[in-house]
Amino acid sequence: TQQPYGGETIFGKIIRRESPARILYEDQQCIAFHDIAPQAPVHFLVVPKKPIPSLSATEDADDMLLGHMMIIARRLARQQGLSQGYRIVINNGPQACQTVYHLHLHVVGGRQLKWPPC
Ligand code: 5GP
Question: Ligand 1 — pocket residues by CB below 6 A?
């Protein structure tokens, strides 16, 4: 079971290769892997290796890391063929239904997304 803050999470185990994942990309700062319960034809996560629990827990000095995660998300979205668009989501805290308290970007695409209406 996940601890709301400060605990070890499944993503730490994936980073250390103690738990399997379909890894798309890795560098010194972050790792990206396919979500185990995809909400669209393409759904992957970009996760910093630094175990920051949530966006709220980031510090101003994490600006380079947060920017890097966005750049990696953009590159991987292109590699995954999401030329018609995609969505990047960060669920932050219980009211946003965050379930894994290790910061991550969701990248979701490959179908028409229904919200907002367009
Ligand atoms: P959150 O709700 O915290 O924003 O999203 C956590 C995401 O992690 C969910 O989309 C969930 O499906 C995914 N997830 C949870 N456990 C695992 C796992 O063991 N492996 C992978 N690849 N994804 C996971």
Answer: 10, 21, 33-37, 91, 97-100
Please list the residues that pair with 26 across neighbouring strands: 31
Give the pLDDT confidence score for residue 7 in this predicted structure.
59
Cis omega before residue 51 (within 30°)? no
Contact 43, 107 (CB under 8 A): yes
User: The whole model's pTM is what?
Assistant: 0.95
How many whole angstroms from its chain centre is CA 77? 12
Residues belonging to the active site: 104
Query: What is the rounded distance in angstroms from the CA atom of residue 45 to the CA atom of residue 24?
Result: 9
- What letter represents residue 2's amino acid? Q
72 Cα–ligand 1 center, Å: 18
